[in-house]
Amino acid sequence: MTRFSSRVLRSAVPALSFGVILAAIFVIQPRAMSYVGMNLMLNLALPIAFATIAQLFVLTIGDLDLSIGGFVSLVACIAATWLNDTPLLGVAALLACIGVYALLGALIHWRNLPSIVVTLGMSFVWLGCAVLILPSPGGSAPTWLTAIVKFKTPYVPLSILGAAVLAFVVHVALMRSAAGVVLRGAGGNAQAVARAGWSLLRVKVTMYALAGCFGVLSGLVLVGTTTSADANIALRYTLFSIAGAILGGAEFTGGRVSPIGAVLGALTLALVGSLLSFMRISPDWQIGAQGIMLIAVLALRTLVNRLEAREA
Amino acid sequence: MQLTPIGISRPMTASPARSPTPLVALSGVTKSFGAVRALGGVDLAIGPGECLGLVGHNGAGKSTLMQILAGTLHHDEGTLVAGGAPTGAFSVGAAHDAGIRCVFQELSLCPNLSVAENTRLRHPGLKGFGWRQPAGALIEATLSEIFPGHTIRPDDLVADLELGERQMVEIAMNFTATGDRPRLVILDEPTSSLDHSVAAQLLAHVRRFVAAGGSVILISHILGDILGTSDRIVVMRDGRVVAERPAAQFDRAALVAAMGHVAETAPETAAAAVAEARPADRPIVEARPPRQRGARSLTLYPGQIVGLAGLAGHGQTALLRLIQNAAGSTSRFAKVEGSVAFVAGDRQADGVFPLWSIGQNVTIRSLAALSRFGLIDGRRERAVEEAARETFQIRTPDMDDNILTLSGGNQQKALFARALASDAAIIAMDDPMRGVDVGTKREVYARIAEEAEKGRAFLWYTTEFDELLNCSHVYVFRSGEIVADLPRGELTEEKVLQSSFEETADA
Amino acid sequence: AQEASDKTFALSNNYAGNSWRQAMIKSWETGTKAAVEAGAAKAADAFTTGENSPTEQAAQLQNLILQGYNAIVLNAASPSALNGAVKEACDAGITVVSFDGVVTEPCAWRVAVDFKKMGVDQIDYLATRYPDGGNLLEIRGLAGTSVDDEIHAGLLEGIKKHPNFKIVREVQGDWTQTVAQKSVASVLPSLPEIVGVVTQGGDGYGAAQAFEAAGKPVPTIIMGNRQDELAWWKEQKDKNGYETFSQSIAPGVSTLAFWVAKEILDGTEVPKDLSVPTLRIDQDGLEKGLEMTPEGGVTNVEYTEEQAKAVIAGK
Amino acid sequence: MSEATLTTKRPGLKRLGRSYPFLFSFVGAAVIFAVTLVVNSFNGAGPILTAALTFGAFTVVVGLGQMFVITTGPGNIDLSVPSTIAFAGAVAMKLMEGQDSLIFLGLAAALGVGLVIGAFNYLLIRALKIPPIIATLSSSFIIQSLAIAYGRGLMIKPPPLLAEIATGRVAGLPIVALVALALSLVMAVVLHRTVYGRSVAAIGQNIRAAGLAGVKVDRVRFATYVLSAMLAALCGTLLAGFSGGASLNMGEEYLLASIAVVVVGGSAVAGGSSNVSGIWGAALFLTLLVTMLNTFGVGAGVRQLLTGLIIIAVITLAGGRKGARH
Ligand SMILES: Nc1ncnc2c1ncn2[C@@H]1O[C@H](COP(=O)(O)OP(=O)(O)OP(=O)(O)O)[C@@H](O)[C@H]1O
Ligand SMILES: Nc1ncnc2c1ncn2[C@@H]1O[C@H](COP(=O)(O)OP(=O)(O)OP(=O)(O)O)[C@@H](O)[C@H]1O
Ligand SMILES: [Mg+2]
Ligand SMILES: [Mg+2]
């Protein structure tokens, strides 16, 4: 019984952090407590949430993707140029990108390579492609894309709905479905999965392809919001996605991940930025305050774990 | 969706034992790892409806042979016939199709998944919408059938389970049938982390399974289990089969002799000589389990060997850890004078450094003593490694080989060597004989006695009753508490069991 | 009209990791503090993000919208990637004035430096020094940014004008002195005779160091108003009459943008595209330039309301 | 140096890469150097190598610290390296005031800054149980703010002697490279021949087992984070001496670089096994790569693309390591 309740508590921590920060924001800036306010605070968090989920797939099998930021940038550049001007070419290019991701998975498996080095190399490759496609910032997002991303849903902003759907779908697919068990198992004990007769190659390829898919979605949502691209637009997503996943309770080993936590983690990161700008800190310390805030959020997690340990 | 409980394994229509067509037959199978010849031409056949006992010293090649049967290793030469047809490249899939299931010596569960999810991993048939419920029901049913009274629930995370519980899950999983039924279940040291009663439940289940027409290969270093459960016993030595007879034609002494060990000379008396405590004036360990009610506490004097008993997972390991951590720092629950060395029982989780050589694994606990001017003295390190190899007869061509190239029992010996080579005054042992063969066990007992004679103190948690006879007195644990302190003279298996189960009124 | 104002201003900045940006924030703080005290504005807060990331800055803009500032003065991480957020600000009735890093969104104002001209000027200058032309080394900035692209385009245009010049090698300096130094040092061994090094500002000292370390004669390096560059130049000038020129956009342009925003809020008709000249130091002005540059900093001027009006009027 | 490796006996290229995982980075560096020379029609071999040694040296210094951190196990990484470089460099320059006599004071202060940062990092990791990657990221933000508030990004000239040391040569070899080499030798001994080094590797393989085998886990991890920060601080001081002062962004490129030299150099990304030689191979490889691409004179996009592809090609040829058995 304690086993169960502690697990529930552990998984409630990301939601708790999110709630605490949101409450702080509402106190400092009541204007945020509205449809418009929530949308303004969170619509740029949606692409980060997608990137975080992409990262999560890679983390699930015990790998790390240092290239997701460059990849999302490239997707943004493709979407703002080819996808707009010659949609067929654009779609083909995006599919090819996912294909390359899947191949990376295969390469990493075949040669038994450390994912960090391969994706480190890929981060240069993606950025190089982005610069080649869009040497100077510009381009414009396809109108249909902007229309979708900026669509005003009734009552609840699209960014929140989107994040909720994302979290739910990935949760069901990865945490509840029968196929998800195999994928996560490969992160926990790859050998056991192989001994049970599953193909590790297929697992890796699937996970990297999924990462690619969600990277593409992230890039699309991003250009839809910004309407225009830049080769350097999403380089920070690499760090954000890792931070978001970790905030959401993921661990670097053993396939311990939580899609709902990861999405909440990404949103929490965005809210931290908002809270900081509402607090009006001297510019010297604005960057540092971001660090302190991150520490505070994670310290909260530790606190909860302590309480739980005392209970047990 | 209504899934009829696919059910508890009712192995196939019972066929007469020892039928002419064996389930699997190996002939002339060899396997080498680099310079190590693990199998040197093995012939073996197992028919339906029999339990084959497989014994042999550590590193004899038992696990390697089983891995070949399970399709996770490929043999170099020889033939393997499964299901009547010779198979060239035998794969995991082929083994599965032939109805072969294997409980590996080093467990293969995914710690990040729940029990039900691990079940799903093993049984590809469990899929589709709402798979969880039947998967849970299935494993729950098998667990209850084999281990009545267990407390494992399908949605427990494997990482949260005790080693013994994990072993139970793994065993149950392999006896579970979904679409296709298990015909041959390989159990590679299944009882090494189970306590006595649970082990008995398992062996009883093996008999039932065999009676219903299934086959089992049982590997164990606990010869009583082998003798009492098998129909036929195969003895391996140095990668070859050296004896094969119906179980009835073996007795303990014959088995030991066949394995290549010198016959035993009444083991208990050897230990008895040293087991008498010589309490010095001051105890070097005084500890109270955190959950202990009442005044009882554990004390250990220099030169003493003290046993910890009780059912697995009732706080013995936790207390050993606590004592280990309390050495060199202050703790609310334990006062420890002198350094502690720990011998892990769960060697993968608590003991082995998988990237290191055998030698490095042995010396890690003694490095400070092997250093001169802050630098580790390579020559002295090597000397310790070689001494360890000799005293514990670690089977390897080279102590520089990776630790994982050792057989399970030999890894365990390396861990023993690590602790005994150190300068620790107190050795905490967490069921340390898991998977160690009889011959080595006897030598280790002797070593322990010798060391105790020299003044070292031992805390010895074990799930095997016989080992407790080496101790001067035994603390019995239940639910994280010490519930009894039995002096050696009063030690009987019944008493230990009684204290382990019974709710005592007092404290 | 200098009556007490109830208008609030925010500075949105995207990078804080160099002396130029630090001087820019400082100028904003000193310049606007005076304005607030004089009652020309109710508040003027500075906001900065760390890593030159367009998405972070876009999120910051949206937060500023939510806080209800009347005007946002913006040094943008990207001319295009912030357009979505800038549009939202405009739609919320906020005046957006971009400077230095300007945005292309039509609803915003731009206080722009003609980066292209900065490129052309470098070649023009070199043409006066070396009428016969020669080989050039180019140190580029951050790849994929518009400033980098435009200065580069300016250089190419200048070379079209003076075809006897040729850029023989292009290296990446990322606007970071240590990177520039490394890149220059790494190509020096393979470089033919060159007459000049064209830069994007701030990389001159590192380049000079690299040449000196390799024991090669230092060509004419175009400087970028950093004090260390000017000091080095002065040293060389005194020693051997070294000649070059130095140019950069003054960090105090943030105050100019502030005053422009104030004018717009006051209802003055202001064209969407304004241009500020670069701050240029020539051989003769070197001593004076060095004097007005703080130790280890960038040559700077802050702008007044009058200067802003003059710029608006196109003078 | 004796490198800890698996000794599964199998012939050929794979075997070589397994017992000498660092070899491939040297081979890669050599190939790239050769290509550069060919393109350059065999001119300037000396200067190219000298430049590579100089700039490689800075990466090696931070890479050594990062290596120890990464060796302590999966998830361990020090992201505060860049801001430590900037802050420590600024502190050193400010205290030295451009005077030779104050060099030691400045250096000591910089190292002190490193010590405090390392201790703070581990405090976050241990006391607040924050995953290292986020702990060091957060502290890097704080340090960056400190650096801004402390130095306002103003560049203060280093003392002439320091500048001379940082840019000088002895027997044709850059002094910084010699310093880095000496440091590497010491670190190699520390890694392979001291209790601390063994403990780091033990923790990286199995932290639980390490604790039970008597390794002082907390002390060792603490020392490791402090070591990393102090080496970053040293690098910051040298770099400031080399490039004419400390600037706020001078550490930026060392975030990726410090990680890249460790992992390209053949240390196990998941911890437990590492080597010092590989750091040199990788540092030379990566700096020579920049030289080569600059020599080719290709545009930024193609340059990035080639950088990535070459890194992947080298690591693919080197291959990974397989666990022995389970
Ligand atoms: N991957 C490997 N590399 C090198 N040697 C190996 C490897 N696997 C097994 N061996 C060697 O093969 C021999 C047989 O090992 P195996 O594990 O089959 O023994 P075992 O009979 O199961 O012993 P135990 O009773 O200790 O479990 C041992 O000498 C072992 O060292
Ligand atoms: N890393 C950067 N990211 C974004 N913008 C930058 C960066 N570096 C410089 N800039 C901007 O580029 C323009 C010119 O930069 P320049 O190279 O002249 O100076 P700097 O980088 O500030 O100098 P230093 O590095 O010597 O402090 C300015 O608009 C400056 O704000
Ligand atoms: Mg075995
Ligand atoms: Mg610059």
Structure description:
The complex is a heterotetramer of chains A (312), B (507), C (315) and D (326). Chain A is mainly alpha-helical and 312 residues long. Chain A is built from 15 helices and no strands. In chain A, helix 1 packs parallel to helix 14, helix 9 packs across helix 10 and helix 13 packs across helix 14. The longest helix of chain A is centred in the C-terminal third of the chain and has 29 residues. With 507 residues, chain B is an alpha/beta fold. In chain B, strand 18, helix 16 and strand 19 form a beta-alpha-beta unit. Helix content of chain C is 43%, strand content 18%. In chain C, strands 2-1-3-4-5-11 form a 6-stranded parallel sheet, sandwiched between helices. A 4-stranded parallel sheet of chain C has the order 7-6-8-9. A two-stranded antiparallel sheet of chain C has the order 10-12. In chain C, helix 1 runs parallel beside helix 9, helix 2 packs parallel to helix 3 and helix 4 packs parallel to helix 5. The longest helix of chain C has 19 residues. At the A-D interface, helix 7, helix 13 and helix 15 of A face helix 6, helix 12 and helix 14 of D. One magnesium ion binds next to loops of chain C.
Structural class of chain D: mainly alpha
Give the strand line-up of the largest sheet of chain D.
1-2
Q: In this structure, how is the largest beta sheet of chain B organized?
A: 6 strands, mixed
The bound ligands are: adenosine-5'-triphosphate, magnesium ion
CATH class of chain D: Mainly Alpha
Beta-strand portion of chain D reads under 5%
What is the general shape of chain D?
A: globular
Most extensive protein-chain contact, per-chain counts: A-D, 49 and 51 residues
In angstroms, what separates the terminal alpha carbons of chain B? 52 Å
The largest β sheet of chain D comes out as: 2 strands, antiparallel
Instruction: Tell the overall outline of chain B.
Output: globular
SSE order of chain D: HHHHHHHEEHHHHHHH
Evaluate the radius of gyration of chain B.
Answer: 23 Å
Which regions of chain D are unreliable across 5 or more consecutive residues at pLDDT < 50?
Answer: 1-11, 322-326
CATH architectural group of chain D: Orthogonal Bundle
- Based on CA atoms alone, the radius of gyration of chain D comes out at 20 Å
Q: Provide mean pLDDT of chain D, rounded.
A: 87
Give the low-confidence spans of chain B: 1-19, 266-275
Précis, in short:
The complex is a heterotetramer of chains A (312), B (507), C (315) and D (326). Chain C is α/β, with parallel strands linked by helices. In chain C, 43% of the residues lie in helices and 18% in strands.
